[in-house]
Write a structure and sequence with these properties.
The complex is a heterodimer of chains A (about 325) and B (about 220). Chain A is mostly helical and about 325 residues long. Chain A contains eleven helices and no strands. Chain A is globular, with a radius of gyration of 19 Å. Chain B starts with 6 loop residues before the first helix and ends in a 14-residue tail after the last helix. The mean pLDDT of chain B is about 85. Chain B is mainly alpha-helical. Classes of the chains: A mainly alpha (about 325), B mainly alpha (about 220).
């Protein structure tokens, strides 16, 4: 195990603060790109911050039947997302938090947040909340195996399940073409669209009974609770983007004990996120929202691609 | 751990993986036109992989067979198929006997079997791309699956052609391709088969007003 270094601690804190600050911006950027692509007038880039600011200053209205779980869930979900952002290397692989949780535990952290948001949706007892919770669990139980398979593929390449080790293996060793990464990348993209309530699976911009998943669960929330949940949703998108960038485009992420490279990694990260956000908006625009019963097929394909990646890794690259 | 495999072999592996991916995409595809386009793409990946192999090994006949692949499977056959689709007014969805997710899962099982069967055989081979033998076998089996699970004649023909793609890949990966005479013969067979099947399509459609081959089960001698 590595020793605790000052650059590491600094890098870790900086990564968390950066995640908290940048996540709403990323959401705003994706919304803006989406509006442009749909020939609509785009909302300002800072709209998510304004919304958070507004929500934090509003009073909380609680339903009569709401239990303590309903009140604590936003904090737990927010905490899970911050932890996820803390252990995914975005700027540097020198993260003191990273040994605490490997990629498998990361999936568990996302799973914990999912369980709490679904429970909170069911807690108040409205039919919408229950519906959203059920749909969320359906999506989750299909998406998680695919995500795990993607992580297994990457872990076999790096021979470690630690995200930082995977990134170090891919970014700072000789360039090798791994066909399995192409499969895993496709599968990861599909899973992250499903997990972040993006268009082919869910549309967070509408409140339509037939389509909503994420929105249905948080309908009963207001005030600072809702602000935390919205912020957590942004953080989740940021975390998935960073995880995708770290696994599939790891160039630019600094190595251990390299402060200069870490400073250089910031503009690279922002550039990659800008491009990634635009690509997300593009994919969202050219796809139609699927029926909810098509989602298992979509995620089944993601799982299939991930397993194929694993098989190709075993067959083609076992001698690599 | 790394760097043992040279770049061209990595390229061939990548292209083989793309061929397998396209095989699955064809299995999942619901529309006829896109199916033909995917078939053409698969042919193109095959062309690229045999081109890379030809450059690396300097085997002349591999250049010829790469050219043959490009001319026949990327340009001519898809063009004929597109024409047939237009003339026969086939539109809408490809009907399968089993639903698509199940087909994909069966396909996944086939890939596992193919990889396992191929791994001892590929140990015997001494070529640079012996790893891709498993993928070639998997492509053949996926094409088989497509022929079995589809109802319409035209998708079955696409499956047949995709199977030929897999066989070609197997031949190049195991032994640097078949002798030229054999390859020309197969190419001609495929072409003639395609043309005859094209004529058959019209006959089947005239007889039954559809290309669904299960009507043919009720044929009787008069």
């Amino acid at each position: 195990m590595m020793s605790l270094s000052w650059t590491g601690v600094f890098g870790q804190l900086f990564a968390i603060v950066l995640a908290l600050a940048l996540a709403p911006l990323l959401t705003g950027w994706v919304n803006q790109c989406r509006a442009w692509l749909q020939n609509r007038k785009a909302p300002p880039l800072l709209q998510p911050y304004r919304m958070l600011h507004k929500l934090f200053h509003k009073d909380v209205v609680l339903a009569h039947g709401a239990s303590a779980l309903f009140r604590f869930a936003p904090f737990i979900i927010f905490g899970c997302m911050v932890l996820a952002c803390a252990i995914i290397p975005s700027l540097s692989t020198d993260l003191p938090f990273a040994p605490a949780a490997d990629a498998l535990a990361l999936v568990g952290v996302f799973g914990l947040a999912r369980i709490f948001i679904a429970l909170a949706g069911m807690d108040v007892g409205t039919s919408f909340g229950t519906l959203g919770g059920r749909r969320e669990m359906l999506i989750g139980f299909l998406a998680e195996p695919a995500l795990l398979m993607v992580i297994f593929t990457m872990a076999m390449i790096a021979q470690s399940t630690s995200v930082t080790t995977i990134v170090e293996t891919l970014a700072h060793r000789e360039l090798v073409i791994y066909p399995s990464i192409a499969f895993a990348g496709l599968a990861f993209t599909m899973v992250s669209f499903a997990e972040n309530a993006r268009v082919p699976v869910d549309n967070p911009a509408t409140h339509l009974e037939l389509t909503m998943i994420h929105e249905a669960m948080i309908l009963e929330y207001s005030g600072r609770h809702l602000a935390l949940l919205e912020w957590a949703a942004s953080l989740k998108l940021y975390a998935y983007s960073c995880l995708g960038l770290a696994l599939f485009f790891p160039w630019g992420i600094a190595e251990r004990d390299n402060l200069l490279a870490m400073i250089a990694a910031l503009p690279v990260l922002i550039l990659k996120l800008t491009i990634g956000g635009a690509v997300v908006a593009l994919i969202e625009t050219i796809n139609a929202k699927m029926r909810i019963f098509r989602a298992p097929e979509f995620l089944g394909t993601a799982f299939l691609l991930a397993v194929l990646g694993l098989l190709v890794r075993l067959l083609l690259e076992s001698r690599v | 751990m790394t760097a043992a495999v040279p770049l061209y072999a990595q390229l061939i592996n990548l292209l083989a993986a793309v061929i397998l991916l396209l095989g699955f995409a064809m299995l999942a595809q619901r529309r006829v036109i896109q199916l033909i386009d995917l078939f053409a793409l698969q042919g193109f990946a095959l062309f690229l992989s045999s081109l890379v192999m030809a450059f690396k090994t300097g085997q002349h006949h591999l250049f010829y067979s790469a050219g043959l692949t490009l001319g026949l499977k990327v340009i001519l056959l898809p063009w004929i198929l597109h024409r047939l689709v237009r003339k026969l007014h086939i539109k809408g969805e490809v009907e399968g006997l089993i639903n698509i997710p199940t087909t994909m899962l069966i396909g996944l099982g086939l890939v596992v079997i193919a990889f396992n069967v191929a791994s001892p055989i590929s140990q015997l081979s001494a070529t640079i791309a012996r790893g891709t033998l498993g993928i070639a076998l998997a492509t053949v089996m996926l094409a088989f699956l497509m022929m079995i699970t589809r109802r319409k004649a035209i998708t079955q023909v696409v499956g047949f052609l995709a199977m030929e793609n897999g066989l070609f890949l197997a031949a190049t990966s195991a032994t640097y391709g078949m002798p030229m005479v054999v390859e020309l013969g197969i190419a001609l067979d495929v072409l003639v088969g395609m043309i005859i099947l094209g004529v058959f399509f019209f006959q089947i459609r005239d007889q039954f007003d559809s290309l669904d081959i299960h009507h043919m089960e009720q044929l009787k001698e008069r």
